[in-house]
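Supplementary Data S3. Sequence and structure tokens for construct A.
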Amino acid sequence: MQTNDQLLSAIENYLTRIDFPSDPKLLYAPIGYSLAEGGKRLRPMLVLLSCQLFSDNVQQALPAAAAVELFHNFTLLHDDIMDNAAVRRGKPSVYAKWGQNVAILSGDAMLIEAYQLLGESAPHLLPQILQTFNTMALEVCEGQQYDMDFEHKSKVSVVEYTHMIELKTSVLLAGSAVIGATIGGASKEDCRKIRRFATELGLAFQLQDDLLDSYGDQQLGKAIGGDILEGKQTYLMVTAMSRADENDREILRNTHRDSQLSNVEKITRIKTVYDRYDIPRLTEQQIGLRFDRALAALATISTDTARIEPLYEFARSLMGRKK
């Protein structure tokens, strides 16, 4: 068995060896630029870790691992266009560096390349892998559309928000895990269990991201309060809206639009409402619940405990936990 660091190194090496054509430059250069930006490689790591649960031949899963990373980066290229985002991972986004048309076309090429990489899977497994990948890809698009719909919706329920982040965030982690397990030879029942693990882990991860945006440490490298300033529907916002009185709901709805307030004042005003309704604690409670459900699902998988431990390590690392 390989360690998590060894698996991550294998992914990085494989990605650097993908031989994209040099011409046309404006089609392929942004792809290399996007992949070179790094990131956590969460999705390809899940492919390899899930394969390793059931097989020692992790190399066979590298093309699929690269495919899900290409797909993930394809979605980021298009997300940055929709969000008019100038920065991605601390560098100019492809959209900002090369423009909208290049970002669209290079993203499309990344998606096609992802399918080509999936095509290197064992022929007898390919129909199942493609079905998993296609379902995952479509659900990610559905999640993005719900997220955009929520920008124009006056009230979003906690149930609606949770469903949206499951589609937008969790299904890509879940699909990656199932693809890896399939390549490793897992049974349908174990694929179902690892899907539940990755889905719950993805929900915990996104809820933690929501919490850190308002209550995190700026040393993490992320500006505090960005979601508040955008008036974004997050778990904190929708939970507060469900509990607040009408006066506080007006504050939650309109503070980000108040031109008389500085950014610091806007953030402080919203967080004061959050604190009044104990929103940070409720969010932490939900994060813990989802994380515990993820680990519980992982514990039921039919394989040796030693093989499961790297996934426990991955989950704890993702959530910043030591146990």
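Construct B, processed identically:
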Amino acid sequence: MRPFHTLIFDYGGTLDTDARHWSHVLRDGYAAAGLTLADDVWRDAYVHGERTLARQPIIGPDDDFLTLLRKKADIETQRLAQLGIAFADDSARQAMADSVARWCDAYVRRQMDVTRRVLDFAAAHYRLVLVSNFYGNVGAVLRGYGLDHYFPLIIESAVVGVRKPDPAIYRLGVEAAGCPAADCLVVGDSFGKDIVPATAVGCHSVWLRGEGWGKEETDDSLPDVILDHLADLPAWLEA
């Protein structure tokens, strides 16, 4: 067993989608609902949704992930309508948003079967900390998927007032762990938001290199290991 004291996990893209960026998962949700979107149109709608949620207090602290997804897809479909995507009426637009949200929630629930097995293994051998850019409701999201008992220690950007890629958020994770950074292993899917800042504060890291967002300059030598799937983590830890 590799001699770490604490595993620090990212949430979005790491524990819920097996290293697929949420832009890709949501776009698949629209396709499943019968709406195929051009790259430029989808990118505009996705970025608009993310920025709107970041600027405005739309997500409540008790919102589970399905509720969050409905709000996100509602904003996205409104933007799509502004960009010329035709819906029969506003009820049809809202129905599309609800269908996308339900599809994405089902996608996450399927992934959670793997995630729980990984976290069961990790929790048996290490202290676990969660460090996430989120909207102030990550606790409700964890409860909704039955993950809350794994993470008594949570560093959430909306709560602590600092966001990735600022290394300070990982420094807070190390402080919560109560051990030196060199004894912490960060597991994340984003090279720029997880691996770079984690390394900057002295942590070891596992990069889940999946389907990312855009073209990002990376350095394969920076993480301790690059894995294709979250399910590969226990075997690497045992090696």
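Residues 90-125 form the longest helix (36 residues). The chain has a mean pLDDT of 97.
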